Records
---
Amino acid sequence: MGKSTLFNRLTKSRQAIVSDEAGTTRDRQYGKCEWNGREFSVVDTGGWVVNSDDIFEEEIRKQVIIATEEAGLVLFLVDVTTGVTDLDVDVAKILRRSKLPVILVANKADNNVHQYYAAEFYSLGLGDPMCISSMSGSGTGDLMDEILRHLPEDCEAEHEEDLPRITIVGRPNVGKSTLMNILGGVLPASEIALGCMRISALSPREAEVLVRTALENGIDFFDHADIYGGGASEEVFAKAAGMCPRVRESMLLQTKCGIVPGKAYDFSKKHILESVEGSLRRLNTEYVDVLLLHRPDTLMEPEEVAEAFDELHRTGKVRYFGVSNQNPFQMELLSRSLHQKLLINQLQFGPAHTGMIDAGLHVNMKDAPSLVHDGGILEYCRLRDVTIQPWSPFQYGFFEGVFLGSDKFPELNAVIRELAEEKGVPDAAVATAWILRHPARMQPIAGTTKTARLVDICKASGVELTREEWYRLYLAAGNNLP
């Protein structure tokens, strides 16, 4: 129901696996959280199943009990979309008997109607339910404040194991969600994003189904650009999403500007401001969450860009900023004049487009892969806490084609198929998991317009590749190690 999603959000990690299958979290997961200068430990538990004959569910129940006994505070997570269940009642009885302080957390309360439903949980006898959405982050700040009110004032600890411990419990997962990423270290978002470049080619019904499928499978981040479909892609998306204040609050929108197709790149203040106004109008929204500069403009005046960003940020039209396809020195040149951090750099990357990795593996060599084409952008982004968004993750070359199923990559597809069968997931999930496995914590942009393929891609969030499997895929793509 979102316990692991909440754990990942509070600890700013993707440590806990999140899935729509009950019992995915079987062992206790420990993480550290900091809020307003105070630290405490957070424990994620498996779904609490009472009187189950399943051996794994019985072990999960034991793990929950152990975690609760260790805790100084329990977060009891319930689901407003399903209401009070018999399992909720059973867990509430156990928690009341434990005498531990409990915060009742009503998850998925991401709109006024769902918050109204939360009143039903007063019947559990655990006090006022706190309404949150572990997926979008709504209400989690208030939850953190409430957690601090339950901690002892003097909770300084010399060792991590001595920190106050908070345990998250609840019944097994009953909803769809993906793992979270923290873009640029500050913006919580879904681990995978939907790229809307080709959405204008869909019928209104097809576009509506695609957007709904993304949301149902945990994607809350949608990538646009002013030039996609000549601007039509943003319009089609807004209509497909049924854009209104309630819908807008459930998603994150990113758009890009700076390309004048076939003529120039333009980072002038005038062009940036006009482009954003156009995107806001087409998206039927008052603001975008992220604005990226689309391709480098060698005639860029950083001070002029800074003026545009300041105005957009001051007027509330853009929350955060980033770039696309820029190298480290281009980003440094721009950042010197900016008052906002660059959170994102969108770059082509995937199993069949590995330039960012090749040069780092062939340091001190004289072969072709040792050539540094991007100024060491991978390492730079990790140092600066900039999130890389891989675009066209399934393409090879510059829009030459998709490698999945291509006879040009027989070995790569054979290894992907083998791993997919072993892990019980589609091929696209393995290919996506290869990107997610990298410690740079990238957020791949899935540009598909096929709903079935999108569902397959989203299943990557539950796939963990070993180091050996990751390198095996890298080599199968035609790469080599010195």
---
Amino acid sequence: MDLKERFLKYVSYDTQSSEESTTFPSTEKQKVLLAALRDEMEALGMTEVSMDQYGYVMGTVPATPGCENAPVIGFIAHVDTSPDMSGKDVKPHVIEEYDGCDIALNGQLTMRVTDFPELEFFKGHTLIHTDGTTLLGADDKAGVAEIMTAAEYLLAHPEIKHGKIRIGFTPDFGIFPVEPEIAVMCEAAAAKFEDAGAIVEPVSFDFKRSAFELAEAWDRMITISGGLGTIEEIKAGGIDLLRDHADDLPDELIYWVEDAYKRGYVDFHDDEVIRTEVFDQVQRAFQDYDLIVSPTCACHPVKNDPNWNTVGPKEICGVKTEPLIGFCLTFFCNFTGNPAASIPAGLSREGFPVGLQLIGNRYGEIDLLAASAAYERVNPWMADYEITKNRTL
């Protein structure tokens, strides 16, 4: 099966995702294509082929003889398509040797070169488009088709020397603890620092507690050290917020204030121990590195609550999340006192800004600002803000 045939086969599967779902993957129909990919991997002769309960499909192109100890290379792609438009009953149209003219999608819709001047770059190429009533699904079934076709070729041509190649396909392209698209965008953005002369390497931490536990510890500490005092000061002024104005307060605030009243010094001390654990892990990383880079937030923006009490998600990538701060990777710096900055990593598929967090060493604000400026020099980002400023909401 060649690349075009494979791609046309994959887009025939409806794998539209859902923003409203609480399951993983977000729609069960994604698993139909994922199961087909698993079976195709096995038929091609890949090894270590598997598909787990969440739809993650993995397979291996074995290393060629003599290359068993070469570095392992991984290729990943996602099968889900956007929830914004249907991916069912896709009718792809193939144009061989595109002539550079307008493309009639159907009787009502036409892609005009005046509206899409980039079409001129594809003159003479083969184009595949829909009839305008559905998504095509090239994001990211084109990636899936490319990976599978490359794997088939390598398996058929053992004279091409290579190390072990691991391949993974994911539903909703999700990996803990950060939503998939954000993780990939931030990894690519971090690599830009190499263009500025930096060495970029993965850094690991050995936190003993889950992100949920750390976020709840932060909620407790900030309520005791700040929120509770404010409540008491207002009460001293003659206004008892919890007694007389509870209906005007968010449920989350009431919960944590009431929780704080039940706690004593030992509880606060236990949370200080947690804070110290985080501090030690972060400072240990700065023994080897000058800058720590991470996503700013673990998820895309959430919809505003019509009742003016917007909180984050309770779950990210199938993992329980604390909705007040747990989706935000910045509270670590509040624990540790390290300076941090959020710089643009780019725009998501839906056009939302994605932030890249830079964390500097304690009292290293000047280095942090210099790193932010260096990033902007090699990866100018102002145009992204022009796009978001001028678009119609």
---
Amino acid sequence: MRLGVGLGLGVGGIHTIPIEAFVFAGDSITGGQGVSPTMPDMACVPWGITPQNIGVSNHTLTQIAADIAAADVPEGRAIVVIGGGINDLAAGETSSPVMLTRFGTCVTAARARFPGCAIAICTILPSTLVTGDQETCRTTTNAALPGAFPGVTIIPAAAVAQLAVHSGTYYGDQTHPNMLGREYYCYCVYETLRAAGIPGLPVPAAPLAHVRDIPDVICEIGADSGITDSSGVTSWLDETANDHDFVPIGLSTTRPAYNADDGDGYPSVQFDGSSDGLVFEYSTHPSSQKIDTGAAYTVVVMFRADATGDGELSAFSGTVFEGRSFLRCNTTTITNLVQDDGGHQSEHGGKTFAADVWHTVHQHHNGSGTFRLGLNSETPTGAGPVASWGASTSIRFALGVWLANAGPIAPRDVRIRALALVKGREATALELWLIRHYWRRVRFPA
């Protein structure tokens, strides 16, 4: 999506001094709400600059201006990202000129506190608490912001229109975006700043052309490519040169369904959780492309699941008890179920997800029996090392039901849209960000 933006130059003309800090000023939407990550945590990942978050819950624009003026931030050229206004509207403000004046106070404070800074203003996000004249004021103010402050970059309202359209998907409550909403909005911040070409801003990682462009990705699949559908999916081709193609095998006695349009204009592969499954075997590949269960790896899956049942999303395993790990969906929680070479199981992760919404889950193994799990933009957490974790080179990687020693887990309806597998190491935070960005904003945009 191409965003219309202004060029943030500050008051000192064009600068070539490097940007040294991102300062995020705002209210609780900026500062974070509950267990959701803060906006800066996600928006700054691709830039490699530590964010300075001075967002304060319930603050109005006037208070945000005071926060900026008093900011205890190390000296250096900065980008100041201003997000606020919702508390002004919730308090009853209905005048767009007044709102613009208050935004101007924030801009003035930023220029005084951080001479030569670049400034960006986030348009005011929708809230079900803001209705009637206040909602009219919100939309009118957003429409006026791009022309109100020369030299200030505006994160345009059009970029975040989906937040209003799919409020149940992207909002955690009446005002605050949930994790998906925050991630979506931070993509908009990233794309706007990147397109603005602000002098001194580090050149960020560009959106990927393909996930397989990341080093050590040995398998990439997407539901819009490489699928043979003959009364169900008979093969799903690997897009790398490694030919890790997925086919039915073992207890996968029926084929998953191919949905050419899963309700949002993009395809998916749907597993019934009972007998549908696809597997690729390592035994048919050269040793350079094998991963034994004692090796480090990261698997990233874009999935959507309903709210009932208990079943496998994917599995990494040997033939009997030779070290295996499963991504397991249980109602609205996804966990990492690990089974050591003695058949003992441990379960951790416990990432709660919204049903019937697309998510990305990333599972990591450090090569020494410690596993971590992350959902969407979460920092992965986990447990380990797993006792008696065994290595096996006779392993399979499966989607849906797989030929396991104890048989398949109970039925579960799950759809998969994309998968990437990194061999020999854990993927970095930047690589995970780029993969999510590519899937959500390039290949399967909302």
